[in-house]
């Protein structure tokens, strides 16, 4: 179930067996590349990591799609508010979002409108939406509508305020990400620099780094291989900002 949700959130038309099949094909392709073409069993075993490419693609596409959904949310709320102020039903407001806005938010709100029109309770339809798109703003949107239906109130004003809050939050985190971009760039540069420098020295001065691959230089190399990823993760952790 979780894998199906992950593939759906990524917007990829694959089933779990298909993604496992792609993983197996990529892994076997990497193994054959190392063993048959490069004549190295060790490289073939290392190239088994190619099987991670489908999963990396799924995760990256899921993040992009969820980020696009979050960025479209304020405009969707504005459309729903205008529909409600015009005296149109909430279901038609969902339908207008599906007609006026691009994917992915159009597809999701069309699903909600279709489920309601087919007789599904609004509460369940909104909970299904929250399950499919588990963004940080979705619980506020769903709870605002459900509470208003039980207690009454001006739903258009509530959604208008929610739209303003979401816009300000997106603007704030955009400024924060700009400020921490320098830290991320420094982390990436420091992680890549030893590899680039080593390759450059190997090309410009062959044999210069040979002592590094023999004790005691080999111990320093092992230490660097362990310290560079730790330092990179530490810098990225400092610069990370939860959305």
Produce the secondary structure layout.
Elements: H1 2-10, H2 16-37, H3 41-46, H4 53-85, H5 90-100, H6 105-117, H7 122-132, H8 138-151, H9 155-204, H10 217-239
Helix pairs in contact: 1-4, 4-5, 4-9, 5-6, 6-7, 7-8, 8-9, 9-10
What does this structure look like?
- With 243 residues, the protein is mainly α.
- The protein starts with a helix and ends with a helix.
- It contains ten helices and no strands.
- It is elongated and about 80 Å long.
Which features would summarize this protein structure in a list?
243 residues, mainly alpha
In short:
The protein has 243 residues and is mainly α. It has helices at 2-10, 16-37, 41-46, 53-85, 90-100, 105-117, 122-132, 138-151, 155-204, 217-239.
Task: List low-confidence stretches.
Answer: none
Bin the strand percentage: under 5%
Report the helical percentage. over 70%
Mean pLDDT: 85
Listing every helix as H and every strand as E from the N terminus to the C terminus, the arrangement reads HHHHHHHHHH
Structural class: mainly alpha
Q: What kind of assembly state do the chains in view correspond to?
A: single chain
DSSP helix count?
A: 10
What is the makeup of the main sheet? Answer: none
Shape: elongated
- DSSP summary, beta strand count: 0
Query: Distance between the terminal alpha carbons, to the nearest Å?
Result: 25 Å
- Rounded to an integer, what's the Rg over CA atoms? 25 Å
